[in-house]
Fold each of these.
Amino acid sequence: MNASVAIQVLPKVEGEETIRIVDEVIAYIRSTGLNMSVGPFETTIEGDYDELMNIVKRCQLICIEQGAPSVMSYVKISYNPEGVWTIDKKVKKHHLENSNS
């Protein structure tokens, strides 16, 4: 694994329609089988850089296919040919703290 990507898609639609379209994007990301984590503002995915860039592209197209006239996305990319830190390494200890509260 040489990359991780955090993506937030903002389809230009009204009200609850936003949730429906974002849910379609998340379902697609989940269908890739890659390790991922859904947060309240963005979804993080781990994998090969080229594969992740194709997923980012597909996320845009899903929003349009689902009826959004346009989509704005915010993408953060961590890339290192030698490997990047995993989602678990970065946040597991914080999730354990929350479960003990």
Note: The chain has one domain: 3-99.
Amino acid sequence: MITSFTDLAQASGVCKKWKQGVKQSLARRESLSFSGRKMDDDSTARLVRYAYSLKDLDISRSRWGCQITDDGLYRISLAKCVSNLISISLWGMTGITDKGVVQLISRAQSLQHLNIGGTFITDESLFAIADSCPHLKTIVLWSCRHVTESGLLVLVNKCGKLESINVWGTRIPVDCFIGLFTISPALQIKTGGLLLNVGSTSLWPIV
């Protein structure tokens, strides 16, 4: 009996019949979440590759110790479904860098929701997101301490559909928000326990 995604990935390598069975079980899935599971580059990339209809991919940090690296993100980026992904979560993936994120994001042109909070990405990733994800609506940058005002300005300027940014725990100065609201008055910014929307001249505490 197959009880985990890792087992499922291993089963796909047993023989052609088993591989076909795994493909059929994943082909119509629109959502895959590996959060809370111990996954590695090989097993994750293999399963994503078989999920042809995938729209929502969650490979957030596992409490068992996620082992996904930049190489894993590169291999995932080669999957056919990546160009159709609407939502991606890489929350807490401290083992990845701009190199892997840029590779993955460069093929995710349909992306609307992205969570890369708790990672060590820099403005390089934000520039790639700005260039590759014109449909982006929400982004979580919680505790991304290496992103700067420059990256956010480019992001908001190029992603015209952006509705919400979470910058809680970053080092972005408050003065930067004025520039962001100038570009996009309806933008909502979550920071320091507050939801800012200068377009409606309001500050709402996050409940």
Note: Confidence is low (pLDDT under 50) at residues 11-15, 200-207.
